[in-house]
Write a structure and sequence with these properties.
four-stranded antiparallel sheet; 20% strand; 277 residues; binds fe (ii) ion; 12 strands; single chain
């Protein structure tokens, strides 16, 4: 079910999370001059809070050997040990729970890359899109999301990528993307057709709205599931890149679903259309 691009919500389950721990953090990274460091704080890796060499105490201040951890402590936690420790405890517990859920839901998956990120800043009014990792490598993606805020996280979802492509294939001449990096077609549809980040909220795709409760956990392959964050505060977004050989059905991997759709559409194409090309 997951591999075919369904959004899966874990029914009647909520993370037991200390929401106040993240509410106490400063979300502004403006005071950090180094743009690379600022970027790392914006797309924060959750274990930075609780993994790494322990800090040393020097003249009443904590000194971390790692500059990202130091910036988290100084800027986001206002140099306050209690705020840091509380956030670290909360994020460690949600991390452990995400790992447990991954093992339960995907016991056979063989991940080769793991990106455990936490979003702490507010997200509003995204345009409808499918995620694009800008890499055409043939891999499968497992994602686990959780709402780490005491307010709902509101998404709209619409058609799965392959369903959208099938529906609009001839209209947009999508056969020109056959055999190419699927991200090119994804970019064209999300940007030129749906408006991308420049021309937002102009599409008339069907919508299903979902309000995820505080602590609610959901799973999905976000290159297949269209989504649009309408409103959201803190969230956990854990991503595993998985070797295709370990999938329940490797034919369900994103690249292959796209290519098989091209084959299906080619087979269905009227003869006249084929000879005129
Ligand atoms: Fe996205």
């Amino acid at each position: 079910m997951f591999e075919t691009g369904q959004l899966i919500i874990i029914k009647d389950y909520r993370l037991d999370f200390d929401y106040g721990a993240l509410a106490a953090l400063s979300k502004s990274t403006e005071s950090i001059a180094d743009p690379d460091l600022r970027r790392k704080l914006k797309k924060l890796t959750a274990p930075n809070f609780f993994k790494g060499t322990a800090p040393k105490e020097s003249r009443g201040k904590l000194v971390f050997p790692d500059q990202v951890r130091q910036a988290i402590y100084d800027t986001m936690c206002h140099g306050d040990r209690e705020i840091f420790d509380r956030a670290a405890r909360a994020l460690r517990s949600s991390h452990d729970e995400a790992m447990r859920i991954f093992e339960i839901c995907f016991p056979g998956y063989d991940p080769f890359r793991f990106i455990p990120s936490v979003r702490l800043t507010r997200t509003l009014f995204e345009n409808l899109h499918w995620d694009n990792h800008s890499i055409d490598a043939d891999f499968h993606q497992a994602r686990i999301f959780a709402n780490l805020d005491s307010r709902p996280r509101i998404w709209s979802i619409s058609l799965r990528f392959t369903d959208w492509v099938r529906k609009h294939y001839r209209e947009h001449g999508l056969e020109r993307f056959a055999g190419k990096d699927p991200n090119l077609m994804l970019d064209y549809i999300a940007g030129s057709v749906l408006g991308g980040t420049k021309n937002t909220w102009m599409d008339s795709e069907p919508r299903h709205r979902v309000a995820f409760d505080p602590g609610e956990v959901w799973l999905g392959e976000s290159r297949l599931i269209s989504h649009q964050i309408y409103y959201g505060e803190a969230a956990m977004v854990y991503m595993w890149f998985v070797n295709v050989g370990s999938m329940a059905n490797p034919d369900n991997r994103f690249n292959e679903q796209v290519e098989s759709l091209h084959r299906e559409m080619r087979a269905e194409a009227p003869k006249a259309e084929l000879t005129s090309v």
